[in-house]
Design a protein that fits this description.
Chains: A alpha/beta (170), B mainly alpha (636), C mainly alpha (314)
Low-confidence stretches of chain C: none
Mean pLDDT of chain C: 91
Radius of gyration of chain A: 16 Å
Shape of chain A: globular
Number of strands of chain A: 8
Number of domains of chain A: 1
Distance between the termini of chain C: 39 Å
Oligomer: heterotrimer
Order of helices and strands of chain C: HHEHHHHHHHHH
Order of helices and strands of chain A: HEHEHEEEHEHEEH
Strand content of chain A: 15-25%
Strand content of chain C: under 5%
Largest sheet of chain A: 6 strands, mixed
Chain lengths: 170, 636, 314
């Protein structure tokens, strides 16, 4: 126990600064409205894997680590969509996951955002046109923004999320 | 005709309450009819303690009989046995000599035997009634022996003569009488290890009878224990109090542990009766020990705690049994695993059952909390005692009472949650109907009594105090206070459930107002339960009662000895496809395995050996006669 | 009388408004200890404010018990805020309550929360309820026995009086009964408020959840009330530990100076306790669920030893 504490103290804070501008593709105009202002200081994110290859998940996992640390901006991940404000959807929506995604979206209380991740989230990416895939996330639930990349790096994800919330990070 | 009988019982109950109240406030009465019965005749005396129990029986009989008005099918058979049952129970607390007491006691047992045998078709009922009959008559044998012994020693069968002669008894007589009488009364009260009849008999009887058996009949066992340890035999040695304390601690723990794993709703309630009897014994035991050490004021405190809990338990147990009866009637089953969602179909029953559950789990500001608080305080005061052995016994009592409180809360979360909440687990539960009006009236009466006894302890404690001080012949100095607060031992402790109740109610509604003022969103949307996006939600996905108690089964596996039974039916074509899986996790009772089965085996072996005497040969019988004659000639 | 009302309002304000700050500070400390910058200590306030503006999605399988539970939780915890000596030795409801009432008030909250967990009809809620009541039931003997040890020495179970009496003892910190009782109640605090090593408040795996599993169905204003109540429970428990075992700084409520001194003393003690909890949570891993009873049995042994120490010294 003491060894761990000593290592912690010696290592110190390793969080890196976030990029000043994020790249997102806005879909619709909800982002500019009051909903975004409401989530400026606190956003609960529920990540939904709608059939992804898990490449985006690996990058998203980096966000909770000490280097990227999304918690310093008031964002945090939650387990239940009832607790969530934003659904972070990865993957082309496969046919098997379409209904599950829809139910997750319905279970999230209003007002809510949907951010699709990666090329798959935009329009199916690598798997577009496959018999098992419905299309992009926008074909199943209304999407507010897409963070492009295959997969987008954690820095890009973080900057994109903050851009979607209309915040300039300090 | 049925209504007439039950109506008469209601009137009898009202009369009993009136008479009992009169007795409690000090107005005594006596009735002597010497020629009616042998050995002293019929003698009835009303004193404060008897008056309290008489009032309790009467007050509990009223809602139980009103329930019977609403339950036509269950109430018809056994209506006369019920009337005899209630009447004989009313006679027991006022009986003033051996014959009257024992005849009333036996009538009560016989009447309840017939009531337990209500459903003559079921093998379970018949065996339950048989076990009940055997245990109750074994208890009667002990009572008979003890009372006759005491009567022979004192020279009179009247209880007041025993009280007067108590200081002059030899210690052997006193201890022997205590042992015999305590065993007999403890068997009736359901103290561990003499409790095995309780979980069998109480579920088998119809619900209003179970309510009376659990709420009032076992209290007559407590009444007997109170008389024996504090009244008839004077001040006894410390081992009496210690034995009562240890028996109380064991009963409360064992009762609640076995209640936790029960899925039969009425059997769960029966085990909880054992637990509460244990709590009452903790109060009585502490009273006895304080009295021996000379702390009479603390003894009164312990006795008040025991009496308060007796009354409280009668109220909430009767309420719970009536609620369970309504549920069993509506769904046709006693098994909790087949219920669920009843709160939407039976809202009144659910609300009353919730009040009963909160009361028995000793949650403030209801009545269970007040009496457990008083019991805790009675136990805490053991710091005045110098003997370290006694301190340890008290600490054992405190620890077991604390654990019991927590486990009782867990058990009633299960009982209420699985029975009433979420989705119905069977068709019968999905089509349940609310209870009829008389049943609802009975339940609401008892629920109101629970609330009143909870927020108004300052109204009832003086009454219990006067009863306790009459029994122990001491003033209730240790407990006092004003209209709002109960104070114990001066600065040691104080509580005001009325204030807490008001504050809780106020703070419950305060957030509603505050949210309105702050401008919080009031929108609500109904949607299905979150199931990780799965497509359907069926009752099969809910938590079951067996699963709920899994942590307890693991922690307390010494008591449960759980066995796992897994039955898998494979598809005939391939072992990779499963058609049905059945999982059972039954528990066994260590008392049956370690105490009763060996005892029965010994009894059978002894009977077999003695059976050799009955050989059927005439020559052998003639030899017996000759031997007996020779023996008599030699001895005479 | 007016002092009593002022103290009551102040205590509710301190507990109600200070609880989110306590939880926020704990989260920030834990983040810093693992090398992250972490959220600001004021983050929970922003979270609660956002939740109040959201709609509440209520499951169709639930009943009025589900909707009443958040209010019941807040009611029980604010009532405990009036019974615990927060900044003076005369809390407003001292006549109405004592340590035993406190324990049972917490149980009242747990009772309703467990029922709400079962009400949703999902396996997660049932599992959370089952585990939560098991832990609450097993923690209770420890609390009562430790309380008994304290009451023996202070000759009262009234919280204010215990604090007063201990404040007058010079060698309190060296008293073995005192230290053992503190250790026992510290473990119980971790168990009852759902901190590591008993329960991980930040876990996302439903199979490892205890408290979180029961609140999975709550959203919007109901979730805000439940989260606030759980923060208040941590605050009240820590206040209890701090003021019972380190009683200096508390005095009779005679005016603004005593209140201010009490508040500052409380802040200092809570800061120390929060740091200790943050260090512990960072260093230990969550126990397997069926090892928690062993931990609670260990805490019971500590409480029992504390009691024996009191008897021996007497």
């Amino acid at each position: 126990m003491l060894r761990q504490l000593r290592t912690a103290v010696r290592t110190g804070i390793v969080t890196e600064a976030c990029a000043p501008v994020g790249e997102i593709q806005r879909i619709g105009d909800r982002l500019a409205s009051e909903i975004v202002r409401r989530f400026g200081r606190s956003l609960a994110i529920r990540q939904v894997d709608a059939g992804s290859c898990n490449g985006c998940e690996l990058e998203i996992t980096g966000l909770i680590g000490p280097h990227y640390d999304l918690e310093r901006f008031g964002l945090h991940f939650v387990a239940s969509p009832r607790h969530a404000d934003c659904l972070l959807v990865t993957g082309p929506v496969t046919r098997n996951m379409a209904e599950a995604l829809r139910r997750t979206w319905q279970a999230t209380p209003d007002p809510k955002l949907v951010v699709a991740v990666g090329a798959c989230g935009l329009d199916g990416g690598l798997f577009r046109g496959s018999y098992a895939v419905v299309g992009g996330v926008a074909d199943v639930v209304p999407v507010d923004a897409v963070i492009p990349g295959c997969p987008p790096s954690p820095a890009a994800l973080l900057a994109g999320l903050l851009e979607a919330l209309g915040r300039r990070q300090r | 005709m049925t209504r007439l009988v039950y109506g008469v019982v209601v009137l009898l109950g009202v009369a009993a309450v009136g008479l009992g109240g009169h007795g409690m406030t000090g107005g005594g009465a006596a009735l002597r009819l010497p020629s009616v019965l042998p050995l002293g005749g019929l003698a009835l005396t009303l004193d404060p303690l008897g008056g309290l129990f008489l009032a309790l029986i009467g007050f509990a009989a009223i809602p139980a009989s009103i329930y019977a008005f609403g339950d036509a099918a269950g109430a018809r058979r056994g209506r006369f046995a019920y009337a005899v049952f209630v009447t004989s129970m009313c006679v027991v607390p006022v009986a003033a000599n051996t014959m009257t007491f024992l005849i009333a006691w036996e009538l009560m047992s016989l009447a309840s035997y017939f009531l337990v045998l209500h459903d003559r078709q079921s093998k379970e009922s018949v065996s339950a009634a048989w076990v009940y009959a055997v245990m109750t008559h074994a208890g009667l044998a002990c009572l008979l022996a003890g009372m006759l012994l005491l009567g022979a020693d004192v020279g009179s069968p009247h209880f007041e003569d025993w009280r007067a002669a108590a200081p002059t008894l030899t210690s052997t007589t006193r201890n022997a009488a205590f042992l015999l009488l305590a065993l007999g009364f403890a068997g009736k009260a359901g103290v561990v290890p003499l409790h095995v009849w309780l979980p069998l008999a109480h579920p088998a009887a119809p619900s209003h009878v179970s309510a009376l058996m659990s709420g009032v009949m076992i209290k007559l066992g407590i009444y007997g224990l109170l008389r024996v340890s504090l009244d008839w035999l004077g001040i006894g040695p410390p081992w009496w109090g210690a034995a009562l304390l240890i028996a109380g601690a064991a009963s409360s723990l064992i009762g609640v542990l076995y209640a936790l794993v029960e899925h039969d709703l009425k059997r769960l309630l029966a085990f909880h009766s054992i637990e509460n009897v244990g709590i009452i014994l903790l109060g009585i035991g502490s009273a006895a020990l304080y009295r021996v050490a000379g702390f009479d004021a603390l003894a009164v405190l312990g006795l008040i705690a025991a009496l308060y809990h007796t009354v409280n338990h009668a109220m909430f147990k009767a309420l719970l049994f009536l609620g369970a009866g309504a549920v069993v009637h509506a769904t046709g089953t006693r098994n909790m695993e087949a219920m669920g969602g009843l709160i939407k179909r039976m809202p009144w029953t659910a609300a009353c059952f919730l009040v009963g559950s909160a009361a028995i789990a000793a949650l403030p500001p209801l009545n269970g909390f007040v009496s457990e608080w008083l019991t805790f305080l009675a136990l805490f005061q053991n710091m005045r005692l110098e003997a370290i052995g006694q301190n340890l016994v008290f600490t054992l009592g405190i620890a077991s009472l604390a654990l019991t409180g927590g486990l009782a809360m867990a058990c009633f979360v299960k009982a209420f949650g699985i029975t009433f909440l979420a989705l119905p687990r069977s068709d019968a539960a999905a089509h349940a109907h609310e209870a009829s009006r008389p049943i609802r009236v009975a339940m609401v009466t008892l629920a109101t009594a629970c609330v009143v006894l909870g927020v108004g302890p300052t109204l009832v404690i003086p009454a219990f105090g006067s009863v306790a001080s009459a029994v122990l012949r001491t003033a209730p100095d240790a407990i006092g206070g004003d209209w709002l607060t109960v104070r114990v031992s001066g600065q040691f402790a104080s509580v005001s459930t009325a204030a807490i109740g008001v504050v809780l109610a106020g703070l419950f509604f305060a957030p509603l107002v505050a949210l309105r003022l702050v401008g919080a969103s009031r929108r609500t949307r109904a949607y299905e339960t979150w199931g990780c996006g799965r497509i359907v939600q069926t009752p099969r996905m809910e938590y079951t009662a067996t699963a709920f108690t899994n942590p307890f089964k693991r922690v307390f596996d010494f008591f449960y000895r759980p066995t796992k039974r897994l039955d898998i039916e494979f598809h005939p074509e391939s072992r990779f496809f499963v058609e049905r899986i059945e999982y059972e996790n039954p528990t066994r009772s260590i008392f049956e395995d370690w105490l009763y089965r060996p005892a029965l085996r010994l009894l059978h072996a002894g009977a077999r050996a003695a059976g050799a005497l009955q050989s059927g040969s005439a020559n052998q019988y003639l030899a017996y006669i000759l031997a007996a004659l020779l023996l008599m000639l030699v001895l005479a | 009388m007016s002092i009593g009302i002022a103290v009551a309002v102040l205590q509710i304000a301190i507990v109600g408004l200070g609880a989110p700050l306590l939880v926020g500070t704990l989260r920030t400390l834990k983040a810093r200890l693992v090398g992250r910058r972490g959220p600001s200590p004021w983050q929970p306030y922003a979270d609660l404010r956002k939740l109040l503006a959201k709609e509440a999605v209520v499951s169709t399988t639930t009943s009025w018990v589900f909707r009443a539970t958040p209010y019941a939780l807040v009611a029980t915890l604010l009532t405990t805020a009036l019974i615990v000596p927060v900044m003076t030795v005369r809390p407003p409801l001292a006549f109405a309550g004592n340590i035993i009432l406190l324990v049972y008030l917490f149980m009242l909250g747990t009772f309703f929360l467990a029922l709400a967990g079962l009400d949703a009809g999902s396996a997660f809620g049932g599992m959370g309820s089952s585990r939560e009541v098991a832990i609450a039931a097993l923690a209770e003997p420890t609390v009562i026995v430790a309380v008994f040890a304290l009451a023996l020495r202070a000759n009262s179970i009234d919280l204010g009086r215990i604090v007063e009496r201990f404040g007058g003892e010079p060698w309190l910190a060296a008293n073995p009964a005192h230290l053992l009782a503190f250790a026992a109640l510290f473990i119980v605090m971790l168990a009852e408020t759902g901190r590591l090593p008993v329960d991980n408040p930040a876990t996302h795996l439903e199979l490892t959840m205890i408290h979180e599993a029961m609140v999975l169905e709550y959203s919007g204003r109901y979730l805000a009330l439940v989260e606030w109540a759980s923060a208040m429970k941590l605050f009240v428990f820590m206040t209890l530990l701090a003021n019972l075992f380190v009683p200096w700084g508390l005095a009779e409520p005679t005016g603004p100076t005593t209140a201010l001194m009490g508040v500052l003393a409380l802040a200092a003690k809570l800061a120390v306790l929060t740091t200790a909890v943050a260090l512990l949570e960072t260093a230990v891993a969550k126990l397997r669920l069926f090892r928690v009873p062993e931990l609670l049995a260990g805490s019971f042994a500590l409480a029992f030893l504390s009691l024996m120490a009191v008897f021996v010294v007497r």
